[in-house]
Amino acid sequence: MIAIKFGTDGWRGRIAEEYTFDNVRRCAQGFARYLWDYVPRPDVLARGVVVGYDRRFNSEHFAAAVAEVLAGNGIPVWLTETATPTPVISYSIVAQKALGGVNITASHNPPTDNGFKVRDEHGGAIDPQGLKEIERRIPNDMQEVRRIPLALAEAVGLVRRFDPAPAYLAHLRTLIDVTPIRQAGLKIAVDPMWGNGAGWFPRLLDGDTTEVHEIHRERNPIFPEMKRPEPIPPNVDAGLAFARRIGADALIITDGDADRVGLGDEHGEFVDQLRVYGLLALYFLKVRGERGPIVKTLSTTSMLDILGEKYGVPVHHTGVGFKYVAPKMLETNALIGGEESGGYAFRGHVPERDGILAGLYLLDFMVQTGKRPSQLLDMLFEEVGAAFYYKRVDIPLESERSKEAARQRLDDARPERLAGLRVVDKVTIDGYKFVLEDRGWLLVRFSGTEPLIRIYCETTFEDKVDDLLAEGQRLAGILP
Fold first, then answer.
1. What is the pLDDT of residues 134-163, one digit of tens each?
2. Which residue from 11, 53, 323, 342 could staple onto 104, CB 3.0 to 4.6 Å apart?
């Protein structure tokens, strides 16, 4: 039995090595103990937990194992009938008035991995302290795991299978009217990356003059034509080529569990996720005329700060991950919250990333303004006073020792300039962020889900992007 450590959203591991049925059952036992310790008994018995899963290898069977353990602990389970997008699972927690949820997914990780995500009663990420409490209750061996066979749990009513789609679709209709999109005569390409987002945009938008064309819509757990189902280059290259081939007005990309979104423009060029966040914020502030706080992780765009100043709304900075974003959104009743990975959440919805809803909002932005994505970017850059350029590199860590050496170097780093730009601040909320004179930044941080060091930058100087990334590698001791 391995020691299970929860990261940003829960726990992820390599299938058949650390990610085994027994270890998934141990996680479920830890979550069951957490609920019994923190929730009054009548609520546990009446409300239960939603359990869902993605299209990865064996996900439905891992979800069944979770349901057996929760039922064995006397906790009722709502088990999804089929692979379901993470935002749909999250909303179903609210719709069913459940205590929380367990989602079997590794989201954007490589095909070798799977995961165990936990959610609270709001459908959002559990805060860091809550994750520690669940982790602390995970038993060290299987002798402490209580479970009953799935067939028996279903027979006695402890496990109920359900379709979460109708409640989610009804809720979407309160957030956005898709009729103008359906009637706009657009040609939309969609790449669900072999994942849970397959079929959702045709379901929502087909039937009028707009055409929706999907690629990678079947279940294929090895994710051909991409390293992983993460909506960033080079994983999106096949989808972009498909969009160019059919002459699409835009490409909407959802990751493996459909909680993140990517965008391709009318030329088949990728729009990076920081620019997408800027577009979504501008859509709400300028087109819909809404006001409210913006929540952003420190690894996403400074354009949000500029928009916040221009439109008179506060912008809150958090650590990386929705375990920080979700609680802040609830605390402030935020208009929008998001992160660098392409995950965005919205007021009136669950405090959880939703790639489907984000994609609909981007398409509505196009329809309401009559502009294509590249023209929307021009509009954004005019609003913030400059074009911003972003890039990220992920570098594998050889060992824990190399990680600690890099951490020590970054602790000590006090550069006055990076790539010729003056450093005006150093922020260590989550990693090491060096704020630059042009409102750009360089960030070096350690991944919370994989053995990687991530180096990010954003700047108004396109020719300095690669130099800044190299500076980050030098600061961490990766380059001499």
1. 999 999 999 999 999 999 999 999 999 999
2. 53
- Identify the pLDDT of residue 449: 67
Closest among 420, 421, 399, 401 to 409, alpha carbons compared? 401
Residue with tokens 């350690």: 446
**In whole angstroms, what is the distance from residue 168 CA to residue 350 CA?**
11
Q: Report whether 287 contacts 368 (CB < 8 A).
A: yes
Sign of torsion, CA 378 383 387 393? negative
180 with 228, same domain: the answer is yes
Q: Quick check: helix, strand or coil at residue 160?
A: strand
Longest dimension (CA), the chain: 68
Span 390-418, mean pLDDT? 92
What are residue 201's phi and psi, to 5 degrees? -70, -40
Tokens, residue 147: 């479970």
Cβ contacts of 189 within 8 Å, gap of 6 or more: 213, 214, 215, 239, 242, 243, 246, 248, 250, 251, 252, 264
pLDDT of res. 397: 86
Q: What is the mean pLDDT of residues 262-273?
A: 98
Q: How many domains does the chain have?
A: 3
- Cis amide leading into 229 (omega within 30): no
Same domain, 365 and 412: no
CA nearest 28: which of 2, 4, 58, 57?
4
Q: For strands 211-214 and 417-418, give the pairing.
A: unpaired
User: Cα separation of 411 and 315, whole Å?
Assistant: 27
Q: Taking a C-beta distance cutoff of 8 angstroms, is the pair 396, 451 a contact? A: yes
CATH code for position 412 = 3.30.310.50
Residues 366 and 415 in one domain: no
Domain that holds residue 225: 176-384
**Contact predicate 135/4, CB 8 Å:** yes
Q: What is the number of other CB atoms lying within 10 angstroms of the CB of residue 177?
A: 12
